[in-house]
Write a structure and sequence with these properties.
heterotrimer; A mainly alpha (about 375); B alpha/beta (about 240); C mainly alpha (about 290); A: about 375 residues; mainly alpha; two-stranded antiparallel ribbon; disordered C terminus; B: alpha/beta; Rossmann fold; 6-stranded mixed sheet; 4-stranded antiparallel sheet
Amino acid sequence: MTPANENRTIPVPDALARFSRSWKSAALALAVGMIMLLVLPRVLDDFSLVQATVYAVMAILALSLGFVWGFGGILCFGQSAFFGLGAYAYAIAVTNMGDSTVPFVLAIVVPAAFAAVLGYLIFYGRLSDVYMGVITLTVTLILFNLINSTAGPEWKIGNAPLGGFNGIPNIAPLNTPGNVDDVIGPRGLFELSLGALLGVYLLLRLLLACKVGRVIVASKENEQRLLLLGYDSRLYKLFTFVLGAAIAGLSGCLFANWGAFTSPTVFGLAQSAQIIIWVIVGGLGTLVGPVIGCVAIQWLTTQIGTQQTINSNLVLGAILVVFVLMVPKGIVPTVGGLGVKLLGAARRKPEVSGDKRGVAQDDHHNATRKEAT
Amino acid sequence: MTTPLLETRKLNVRFGGVHATRDIDFTLAEAELRCVIGPNGAGKSTFFKLLTGQVKPTSGEILFRGRDITAMQPHEPGRFGIGIKTQVPSLFNGLSVWENVWLAARRVSTPMQTERVTREVLERVGMLSHREAITGLLAHGERQWVELAVVIAADPPLILLDEPAAGMSDAEVARTAELILEINRRHALVVVEHDMSFIRRIAKKVTVLHQGAIIREDTPECIMGDPFIKQIYLGKKPH
Amino acid sequence: MDLAAIILIQVLYAIASLFVISSGLAVIFGMMKVINLAHGEFMMLGAYAAIEAMRFGVNLWVAILVVAPLAVAVIGVVLERVFIRRLYGRMIDTMLATWGLSLLLIGVVTSMAGNTTAGISAPLGNFAIGAYSVSSYTLVIIAVAVVLGFALRWVLLHTSLGLIARGTMQNPQMADALGIAPGRVYSATFAVGAALSGLAGALLAPMTGVVPTMGGAFIAKAFITVIGGGPAIVAGLVSSSVLFGAINQIATFASTPVFGEVALLVGAIVMLRLLPRGITGRFFRGAL
């Protein structure tokens, strides 16, 4: 006989939570993405397509932090470091090599390797969240200072001058592997960027549904319990951190392609802050949230940039403060929650009978147990 | 002479000036159930934490099936086959009951086996009906049972429980005692507890700690009848 | 010999400026466990306050040592009451909100003062040691750091204000039960921390340019110093400033200022690996 309180209903996740964890939400997101991938190049003019491309590229960066922080619980304040390393690695490598295949790979591998070393020092040193935030912030600041000071002609890797605060201009775009002259155009870059975004999203959803992903999420929930179960949380955190860096590096490579230019601002404090704001505004703990937050904030900053009266730092700062204080969950969960409530209010009857089913099942189990005892 | 499952040799821990664990020689055989009791400050928690690796001894050794595990990393006890339930319930509160047990089982089983094992273990502790529940929102007693399920899911030969019946109603305590006895059929257990009635239900052998050292190891009846032990629990008798 | 003296002064200056920069953060983080990412902007506000005061004819020393700390203290109290207070106990949220505040403050000041670099020329000129010349102002900063260190320790240990603050931080409910309003203590402590940051900003203004984004250069160093110092506020600050200030300066001598910063960060990571709770988590335990 179970002394469990038969009068209480079992606290199960709400409809929104169940939806977002199921394959249905992934399918929906991918479907929307695929539609945009097919339709937008036909509908938008080149200028708008270029604008949409940078939204997609930055959305990949937002996803990287959304994953590392929202699911891995790793408070990385310096995700822009990996973004910048990706951009610079691509720029330098393609200037030296011509063909873009290896540079593309390097743009992903170099930030990942850097993250592996940094992550090893932090996770295997069992440093706390606070240190993580400060150290990653400092790393990106140092990278900024370092690259910023490389303006002189003596600063070069192979044939590629680092350019210091001037940046690296005229970055050769991606070409079809093996054929240096067949370079990617605006439409191709858009399709590649959006395609990469969808690919990364799918990859992360699959990861989160399998054992490794679930351990990563559990590590954020309760690291002590995870350790007691025999999982080495340091390894999983390191993996999460490195994967996040690789994704950010990919975004950096695409960004360098998009502007044919990169400068130390990719490492800057402003860039770091923006990524954090995208994730917080969009919704920490979701994958779609950071993407939406990114597009929304990017759009907003473009609008602010066109006028002179209001300073963009002011607006971004205010948004961050307001969201942390008042909308801590971010847009997607809040809107999603409201949507579920509205739907629930509109479809009251079916919900009630659903509950009854749940309670009936419970009674059935209790009955079975009674018989067994 | 078979190797004991768990053995400590001259285990000592000092914190600053406090000698919290003194020369403890503790032995546990395979599938044995031992309760560890003692008044407040006797060093039960410290001893438990030494066994789980949360506290490192100042001197002495801990052996698990003959293997020295004194200097363990935090994730190693679980790997070696020691299931641990700490005094403060430690579960993945945001995840479902099913997911909690699944994670525990998955480390040692294939995906197919894990589904089966998770179902069986939840059935054993009577929480299968609650498998979708968000663990953090369950009642205290239910969470303790989920934690038991989590602890046994990877089938560890040794299970350490710190106050498994804490905060439970009488009915829940009875159920927990049943569970522990059932678990004891195939696993060894070390149970640190306060509740004497609970201990009487489950223990065949009890280790009594006092001021960091073992003063007596015997059956519950002999322990209860010992006037010295009564005195250390209740304090000095007035003259 | 002269070179040795110069190097010594530069190292002492590095240590002293690190101490001064980090003192405000040490008070706020060490006492209140609040991660104030707007610390650099408090410094920036102090620098601008001093400049504005001087524009109104206030004496340089009064502007730096009196006006700047007071102005930022007032701003600090306002910000604490309006924002920070709601986030006590939520460390990550505090970090994020103060980061937002930092952007907000940069935006506000940029709107008001523009992007160009303002400045205060270093007073007192230079003095010579052998063939080398050193800015006398560096000695002022060293002196201020020393005075500040002793003053902090004295206030914390020997005044009732310090005792009340320490007690409230350790156990606010108890303090409340004893008739001390924790809210007031928090505001006061935050104000002191803000004042120290403002002082640091104004003090360093003659050595660096004053621009709305100047805070970014200091925030990382300050945090590393405070976290590396460990739980004891003054002892931690002193030991940490000595260690990291020396590392920074020596590395700078060996190569460039940027590598000095890198050395500081690497040193911090290594040190945190060895002493995860900071210097005073292991040594000088029980000191203040």
